[in-house]
Amino acid sequence: MRDTIPKATMSRISLYLHEVEQWQQQGHEKISSQQLAEILGLTATQVRKDLTHFGQFGRPGVGYHCGELIRQLRLILGTDRVRHVALVGCGNLGRALATYPRFEKRGFSIVAVFDNDPRKIGRKVGPHKVQDMSHLSAVCRQKDITLAILAVPAAAAQDVADRLVAAGVYGILNFAIVGLAAPSDVVVSTVALSMELEQLGLAVRLRHHGTRDA
Amino acid sequence: MRDTIPKATMSRISLYLHEVEQWQQQGHEKISSQQLAEILGLTATQVRKDLTHFGQFGRPGVGYHCGELIRQLRLILGTDRVRHVALVGCGNLGRALATYPRFEKRGFSIVAVFDNDPRKIGRKVGPHKVQDMSHLSAVCRQKDITLAILAVPAAAAQDVADRLVAAGVYGILNFAIVGLAAPSDVVVSTVALSMELEQLGLAVRLRHHGTRDA
DNA sequence: CTATGTGAATCGATTCACAGCC
DNA sequence: GGCTGTGAATCGATTCACATAG
After folding, report:
1. CB atoms inside a 10 Å sphere around CB A35
2. CA of B185 vs chain A CAs: smallest distance (Å)
3. Is B51 near strand D, with its CB below 7 A from some atom of it?
């Protein structure tokens, strides 16, 4: 487990966890790299290579024990214990994310919600009162918040990111369409929804290349 | 332009478009591969290689003309003309996406919204009345809808996807956490928000590897 | 005989080095 | 001089082939 993990591998670990959980819920006790690969449209070798970056979880001639593999994958992802998350920005997208049930189901708990709009502060969003940004640092430290979801307008994103970093957050999931500067020990991952749609459009165009200008 | 485009290149084209637009709005007339690369944290060579997959848009000694490059990038992405999009699923996330202003700003227009919940049908979400799923096929064809955003529960996703395909949609942006089966001429792109958060958590853990179990 | 784990080989993407144009 | 476009070289990721364990 102590070499550097390929980026491509990292992006597949949570896929593995999700599919093995599904598989187990369907009543299976074990799963082979072949079966897991087929579900995900990968190769069996790729699945095994990915997993062995973190340890040897399977048994030759048998496969992987679902329960054990799930435990290990959660350990890898750090979701064996619940992680506290702050959500900043209570627009339409922010409110949807605040109540997105899958975060809670997968080991992340949104424990504080912030906005800087006085009309929103004090309102409830899901189970949480929206708090003023000025409380950000104190609340993050008090509630042991290590990750943040950023759903504010692009113009405000860098400022909020700086404040989150100052508040001791280690990772930021950024829904604004700007690159964020952050110190090297803080991870920023940007989800640009409009670009996802653009890329889908491009993929469609290339697949139908000459065919028609669909 | 007629070799196969690397997947990695495809995923960067919309980044280029966005940054060149910003750059132009800041009053610049031209941009060099070096400047664009710095903004995005890439190398100048990579930017040039990516662009030349689609044609030769720059002039040696000068750089790229912003206006011309933007025009070409939109042509590549197919957003030179507005594309009609259907949104299926009016839960919290669906409603946020239905009114997400950036889609409209970048050449995509949500022209129809569907749900199968009778209590939601007829309500307005942004400028659109929520329609029953039974109208899906007729509306998609009538309004020349080529792309769809799928924001329904995982259990319903495959069924809806099948109906979208039957309705002549070429691409599906899927927010449900399931792999969707679709014919090879239909592109499915899945955005799994909870997995984004898991991957962020993993990246954080690996960056701080031994340090502390943040 | 079945399925994992892994070094070696292949494949694809990034970077280098430079030829050609402004 | 400055910068693009591109073949050659490097780097990383996937696949192959097989040794090893159940």
Report:
1. 18
2. 7
3. yes
